[in-house]
Automatic annotation (TrEMBL):
<keyword id="KW-0472">Membrane</keyword>
<feature type="transmembrane region" description="Helical">
    <location>
        <begin position="423"/>
        <end position="443"/>
    </location>
</feature>
<dbReference type="InterPro" id="IPR016064">
    <property type="entry name" value="NAD/diacylglycerol_kinase_sf"/>
</dbReference>
<dbReference type="GO" id="GO:0005737">
    <property type="term" value="C:cytoplasm"/>
</dbReference>
<dbReference type="Pfam" id="PF24321">
    <property type="entry name" value="DUF7493"/>
</dbReference>
<feature type="transmembrane region" description="Helical">
    <location>
        <begin position="625"/>
        <end position="643"/>
    </location>
</feature>
<feature type="domain" description="DAGKc">
    <location>
        <begin position="83"/>
        <end position="222"/>
    </location>
</feature>
<dbReference type="Pfam" id="PF07690">
    <property type="entry name" value="MFS_1"/>
</dbReference>
<dbReference type="GO" id="GO:0001727">
    <property type="term" value="F:lipid kinase activity"/>
</dbReference>
<feature type="transmembrane region" description="Helical">
    <location>
        <begin position="663"/>
        <end position="683"/>
    </location>
</feature>
<feature type="transmembrane region" description="Helical">
    <location>
        <begin position="498"/>
        <end position="523"/>
    </location>
</feature>
<feature type="transmembrane region" description="Helical">
    <location>
        <begin position="535"/>
        <end position="555"/>
    </location>
</feature>
<dbReference type="InterPro" id="IPR050187">
    <property type="entry name" value="Lipid_Phosphate_FormReg"/>
</dbReference>
<keyword id="KW-0812">Transmembrane</keyword>
<feature type="transmembrane region" description="Helical">
    <location>
        <begin position="382"/>
        <end position="403"/>
    </location>
</feature>
<dbReference type="GO" id="GO:0046512">
    <property type="term" value="P:sphingosine biosynthetic process"/>
</dbReference>
<dbReference type="GO" id="GO:0022857">
    <property type="term" value="F:transmembrane transporter activity"/>
</dbReference>
Length: 727
């Protein structure tokens, strides 16, 4: 065979490998293994001679018979105690969610079961309640598990079908119920496998170890229903049941139903009676630690959960156990607590994580035979005061946004306005970030919030010491001209150069707000931790502040407003387009792209505000700045909601929660609008004929050339402005 490189099979406790070997007879004779061990051979575990059963040469191929032993070890290490070749009854609801269950089963689920040599009996359900009928008549000795390819509704039917059997205890103990997410709400998969991806959930089912799950009995009059995940009434339940006609929207229907009922402030009066097992935070934390350790030890043993002995007529004839505490018609035990719920909004108990992006708790999953109960009720007076406070703060928050352009026009000359505008504009988000840090330090309990608000109010009163305008204007243009707001808006609307910069500027504000808010959701599907996402956000803001501080004085000195805007806008657009491919790439690329976005955006901000203020004279500078900020913030809300709704859930082809569609939406719009400033020169040339003839307008402090069209416009709305000024 000569000294030619070959391949041999190797394994470790972590996985399977193919290792290169060399044909070296001398080394082979003195070796303890069936492949040579030379200095050139990688030091990996290989097959000992003791495990070799037979060896022969067939058509110049060396055949070593050791496979049975090796495969056994490989499979044992791969399954780690889980049952192999599971027998599965698969129920598929082709109408669940967006109607993709049948296609996902054929493309992503069935191939994995077949590759794992699982025995499959697949059935498609055709009507509501068929899952209950199938599981009620299921031969539990023929199957190891029932796999539900649907949403949570079909899993609910399976549990209740098993619970209706005469041998309910045996059936529920012997048959495992598994969930592969294919519906609108996939809370069971989220709790069992921490995923909404069909392929990943299927792999978890194949490699899964059977474990018990607490079921809760819910009674209403004479009916008894088994609940397996969570129990809720109020807004949460109605948001699900009342949006059945909106199934085509997918999981968005839950959010829509929830939002409409929150805004309507619906209440669901009832009386809540609970038996409190543990209530203090310390006792819950201790119990959590103990149960977590217990579960970790059980998982480390890699042992299957022992099946219930199904032999014997006594076990076979046992249905569900009787209710331990009765129903609402029975007397309330003395150790139970009554909670009034006349203004109940939401009652929720059970497991955490009813959805992909909603978590109701963090400890309940390890506390057996108990249910975490959370309830929310409205206090009308406090609610009204909160709404009033939010409205007042929202109105007040818009004031600092409109001030920079106005004050820089009054206090600074043309050589320093951009830098001053940058300081004033960026101080608002910087102060907000500092305030969040201070709030974390100062506010320890909810009683500390009024104290912090009092401090803020006292500090805010210092603003009355700021003079309205300087005693001596720094330059001639600092003289203010009184222009009616309606006339000012008309001037902006008729200025094409204003729109060339207004459109990309407002869109960039919206996208900056959206990407900074959704950064964690964008990166987390690709294994990026929330801490790292926080560092990425810090890079976005930090690079922006540093770049703006360094660039704006230079732009002021060189008077390069147009050039800087024409460079910054396409740069931002290219970066947003590039960001489509950043998730899943090396993390350093995310730092670079976000740093460039932050630097270009924060530099563009004061330059554009100053340029728009000068371009739209004699309209007050705050008109253009307020309009830009207002539209930009509204677009930020629209873009954030749109990108969240473009998330991908349940598609095995991409990570669960992938936001690539939202990033494509963002990148395409950003690159399209970023080229608008490049047409400024063309628009200016087209506007030249309208600038002749011109009048020389003079007053005591100002000599300037005014286009005839602009002068006529000023004359039409301000006769008093023209009178008394020589020409």
């Amino acid at each position: 065979m000569g000294r030619q490189m070959k391949m041999t099979q190797g394994y470790t406790k972590d996985g399977y490998k193919l290792n290169p070997i060399y044909d070296d007879t001398a080394s082979f004779v003195n070796s303890k293994f069936c492949v040579p061990w030379t200095s050139n051979f990688p030091k990996l575990r290989i097959i000992p001679f003791y495990n070799v059963l037979w060896a022969e040469i067939d058509n110049n191929h060396l055949i070593i018979v050791f496979v049975a032993n090796w495969i056994s070890i490989l499979l044992d290490c791969s399954y780690k105690g889980a049952q192999q070749k599971k027998r599965a009854k698969v129920l598929i609801n082709p109408y669940s969610g967006n109607g993709k269950a049948r296609r996902w089963y054929s493309k992503y689920i069935k191939p994995l079961f077949e590759a794992a040599r699982c025995s499959i009996d697949a059935v498609e359900t055709g009507y509501s309640g068929e899952g209950t009928t199938i599981s009620e008549g299921l031969d539990v000795d023929k199957f190891d598990m029932v796999v539900v390819c649907s949403g949570d509704g079909l899993a609910h039917e399976v549990f209740n079908g098993l619970g209706k059997r005469p041998d309910a205890r045996r059936a529920l103990s012997k048959i495992a119920v598994a969930h592969v997410p294919c519906g609108s709400g996939n809370g069971l998969s989220q709790n069992l496998n921490a995923t909404g991806n069909a392929s990943i959930a299927t792999l978890a089912v194949i490699k899964g170890i059977r474990k018990p799950l607490d079921l809760i009995s819910v009674t209403q009059e004479d009916s008894r229903v088994l609940s397996f995940l969570s129990q809720t009434t109020g807004i949460g339940a109605e948001s699900d049941l009342a949006t059945e006609n909106l199934r085509w929207m997918g999981e968005v229907r839950f959010k829509l139903g929830f939002l409409t009922r929150i805004l309507a402030k619906k209440v669901y009066p009832c009386e809540i009676v609970v038996r409190i097992v543990m209530s203090s935070k310390e006792s819950i934390m201790d119990h959590y630690a103990q149960e977590s350790l217990k579960n970790a030890l059980e998982d480390a043993k890699c042992e299957r959960t022992p099946e219930v002995d199904s032999s014997g007529e006594d076990q076979a004839n046992k249905g569900l156990p009787p209710l331990e505490y009765g129903t609402v018609h029975d007397k309330i035990p003395d150790d139970w607590t009554v909670i009034p719920g006349d203004k109940l909004g939401i009652l929720y108990c059970g497991n955490p994580g009813p959805g992909y992006d909603l978590s109701s708790g963090s400890t309940i999953e390890v506390i057996s035979e108990t249910a975490d109960v959370q309830y929310i009720h409205y206090k009308r007076r406090c609610y009204a005061l909160t709404i009033v406070g939010q409205v007042v703060m929202g109105i007040a928050g818009a004031v600092p946004i409109s001030l920079p352009s106005h004050y820089t026009n009054l206090w600074f000359d043309g050589n320093s306005r951009i830098a001053a505008n940058a300081i004033m504009s960026l101080s608002n988000p910087t102060g907000g970030a500092i305030a969040q840090i201070i709030a974390l330090i100062v506010v320890k309990t909810k009683q500390d919030i009024p104290t912090l608000m009092l401090y803020i109010s006292i500090i805010a009163t210092l603003s009355i010491l700021v003079p309205a305008k300087p005693l001596t204007p720094p330059c001639m243009p600092s003289e203010e001209e009184n222009v009616h707001p309606k006339a000012a808006l008309m001037m902006l609307a008729k200025n094409p150069r204003f729109w060339l910069f207004f459109i990309p500027f407002t869109i960039f504000i919206g996208f900056f707000n959206a990407i900074s808010s959704l950064l964690t959701q964008i990166m987390s599907p690709y294994g990026v931790s929330s801490d790292t996402s926080g560092y990425l956000g810090a890079a976005l803001i930090g690079c922006g502040l540093v770049t703006a501080a360094a660039a704006t004085p230079v732009i002021d000195k060189l008077q390069a407003r147009l050039l800087s805007m024409k460079v910054a806008a396409p740069t931002i657009g290219i970066c947003y387009l590039t960001f489509i491919w950043i998730p899943g790439s090396p993390i350093v690329t995310a730092y670079v792209v976000l740093g460039v976005i932050g630097g270009a955006s924060f530099t563009l901000l004061p330059v554009t505000l100053e340029w728009l203020a000068k371009e739209t004279e004699p309209a007050p500078p705050e008109v253009s700045s307020v309009l830009c900020w207002m539209i930009g913030q509204l677009l930020g809300i629209v873009f954030t909601i749109s990108m969240q709704n473009l998330k991908t859930h349940g598609d095995p082809a991409v990570p669960n929660g992938d936001m690539k569609r939202g990033l494509i939406f963002e990148g395409v719009i950003a690159i399209a609008c970023s080229i608008l400033p490049l047409f400024e020169r063309l628009v200016r040339k087209m506007d030249v004929p309208n600038m002749q003839p011109a009048f020389c307008q003079y007053n005591e402090t100002l000599l300037r050339v005014v286009p005839e069209a602009q002068l006529r416009a000023e004359w039409s709305y301000s006769i008093g402005y023209i009178e008394g000024k020589g020409m």
